Amino acid sequence: MEKRPDEVSGMFSDVARGYDRTNDLLSVGNAILWRIATVKAIDPQPGERILDVAAGTGTSSAAIARSGATVVAVDFSPGMIAEGRRRQPSIEFVEADAMRLPFGDEEFDAVTISFGLRNIADPIVALGEMYRVLKPGGRLVVCEFSHPTNPVMRLGYETYLKLALPLVAKLSSTNPDAYSYLVESIQQWPDQQALSHRIRGVGFTRVAHRNLTGGVVALHRGRKPVDEAVRASAARRRAPRKTTT
């Protein structure tokens, strides 16, 4: 699915005010459970610096910050940033593109992104940027929609996406049409194993995933290696290939 950053950014700005309420309804109350699992996987510690990419209104950022860690929330939607600053005045918000993070190398102890990776024009470039800004040994946690592993549950979930979700969005969202994009982006997103492969491909090690709600959501984790030889090999894989004429 072609994703134009300006259109996606504008779409999220349109739904910013009611975004969290609609998400709670569409997830049938599971959103808070997914958030708790994500924060637990990040394992934030007092004094750490953690980057929350595609942070939206900062709901997850605030949950991470309760640990005593310093959280920087990044999003490319001006509307989401404005709403986040209004709701979470103690969190630092930065408007930026995940494919061009405005931070130096090895600044953060952990980087996380929840339900945002599939909205990025080139997720692999964004994963490479997350790798770059992590300190050696730093942690990556990706919480994203995925694919149920049980065939019966998969059928029920697909039916929900096609029939129930548009109705709930129409009743609760300020921009119901935006949720047509949500359905398409979920359906076309790679499965758990494919995403794990992409995460390894940019250099992360100790990559693993855990299914939540039967695979409706998957929680992916990885580490930036400390060993210089491993890091150098990863850097070579991320470097653009030279072409000859």
Automatic annotation (TrEMBL):
Pfam hit, one: Ubie_methyltran
Keyword S-adenosyl-L-methionine in annotation: yes
Pathway connected to this protein: Quinol/quinone metabolism; menaquinone biosynthesis; menaquinol from 1,4-dihydroxy-2-naphthoate: step 2/2
EC number: 2.1.1.163
Key word Lipoprotein present: no
Positions bound to S-adenosyl-L-methionine: T57, D75, D97, A98, S114
Biological process according to GO: menaquinone biosynthetic process; methylation
GO molecular-function term, one example from the UniProt record: demethylmenaquinone methyltransferase activity
Reactions listed under catalytic activity: a 2-demethylmenaquinol + S-adenosyl-L-methionine = a menaquinol + S-adenosyl-L-homocysteine + H(+)
UniProt KW keywords: Menaquinone biosynthesis, Methyltransferase, S-adenosyl-L-methionine, Transferase
Enzyme type, top EC level: transferase
Role noted for this protein: Methyltransferase required for the conversion of demethylmenaquinol (DMKH2) to menaquinol (MKH2).
Family statement: Belongs to the class I-like SAM-binding methyltransferase superfamily. MenG/UbiE family.
The protein's name: Demethylmenaquinone methyltransferase
Organism of provenance: Protaetiibacter intestinalis
